[in-house]
Amino acid sequence: MASIITVSGLTKNYASGFQALKGVDLEIEEGEIFALLGPNGAGKTTMISIICGNVRASGGSVTVAGHDIVRNYRESRAAIGLVPQELHTDAFERVIDTVRFSRGLFGKPRNDAYIEKVLRDLSLWDKRHNKMLELSGGMKRRVMIAKALSHEPRVLFLDEPTAGVDVELRRDMWKLIGELRQTGVTIILTTHYIEEAEEMADRVGVINKGELILVEDKTALMKKLGRKTLTVTLSDRLHALPPELSEWNLSLNGEGCEIEYVFDTQAERTGVSSLLRRLGDLGIGYKDLNTQQSSLEDIFVSLVHQEKAA
């Protein structure tokens, strides 16, 4: 699949000496949902701001839909819709007016049918004559998405799209983002909610201290770096783990009724079979076995910790 965004050697240095980005390289494919994860201050918003033309890079280059963001600013910016983390709207402006105005900013001719479709898709049509100050926080965020889509961009950036919204609305937003992808829009989102990336993203990038430390297909990443936890539910309670089980990394949980074993799914030998045999040799009976794959959050925390230790 062709790349719609190409980032090459991107750097950003501030006058204070702080280096927000350190030679970032990234290709984003057309039509995908790409999640950019990282702790606070990692460089997520800085990178998005540079790609969208709101912040000037110190070095490197970026192209969007084949247009250099510096030499062809108008063309590259017209291909981008941006939903910022902070909500900036005129409190006394009507919903439909603020969305129409955003379309006009990009020189697009008036298209009431398209604006109606966007507002209906975002469940905003019934609110079209409401002033912004009359809307809830979740509805205001929907308006920000409508504004970003008003000029029919090929790429949509969502900077912390569900920050400050309740769980139910967050699920609605996830559904909406999935539907937007079906229309062919490429979506790049930054998020603190790991489950957001796990739910929606095709690929995941992890940025820390201005460096992109990993870009991977989400499924492949979880398979490659994920661990599994085997929970053995015992027939009888144990007061302590026998020393004969010391070669496995075990913990005794559930008031002595469960043994947990964390193992590497990519190891040549996981140790599961030998553990179960040893339990049988020791006369330790069990009535249930359960395995659970580590989540994307576990992987993310592990990667960031490795980077800090390096």
Structure described in brief:
The chain has helices at 44-51, 73-78, 95-105, 112-121, 137-149, 167-182, 194-200, 218-225, 272-281, 296-309, and strands spanning 3-13, 19-29, 33-37, 59-64, 67-68, 80-83, 155-159, 186-191, 203-208, 211-217, 227-234, 250-253, 258-264, 286-293. It is α/β, with parallel strands linked by helices.
Count of helical regions? 10
Radius of gyration: 24 Å
Largest sheet: 6 strands, mixed
The helix content, as a percent range, equals: 25-40%
What's the overall average pLDDT, rounded? 86
The helix-and-strand class reads alpha/beta
Number of domains: 2
CATH class of the largest domain: Alpha Beta
* N-to-C order of helices and strands: EEEHEEHEHHHEHEHEEHEEEHEH
**DSSP, total strands:** 14
The coarse overall form would be elongated
What topology, given as strand order, has the largest sheet? 6-7-8-3-9-10
So, CATH architecture of the largest domain?
Answer: 3-Layer(aba) Sandwich
Could you say what the CATH topology of the largest domain is called?
A: Rossmann fold
Strand content: 25-35%
Low-confidence stretches are: none
State the end-to-end CA separation: 34 Å
Q: What's the name of the CATH homologous superfamily of the largest domain?
A: P-loop containing nucleotide triphosphate hydrolases
